[in-house]
Amino acid sequence: MVERSEAEALAQALLAGELPRRWQHSVGVARQADRLAASGGFEGDLLVGAAWLHDIGYSSQLVDTGFHPIDGARHLRGLGADERLVNLVAHHS
Ligand SMILES: [Fe+2]
Hints:
Blueprint: H1 4-16, H2 20-38, H3 44-53, H4 68-78, H5 83-90
The structure holds fe (ii) ion.
């Protein structure tokens, strides 16, 4: 499992310097996910973690296939992340 703070830190490390607009997009998505999670009925840590991490596959450090959802998901799987988180990143649109 990747905790919320770990998800934010990982996304920041991979996106903020290289891809600041992508990073700002991720910050916005995470804020929306936080609001949604606070309303209940969701697994908040999983939802917010996926929001932070959904676009990490754009990082040049992770590009492999060139399809960012898959590249991000493969990286997370390699880190031993929860398979549900891996799948949310792999299948986001
Ligand atoms: Fe994306």
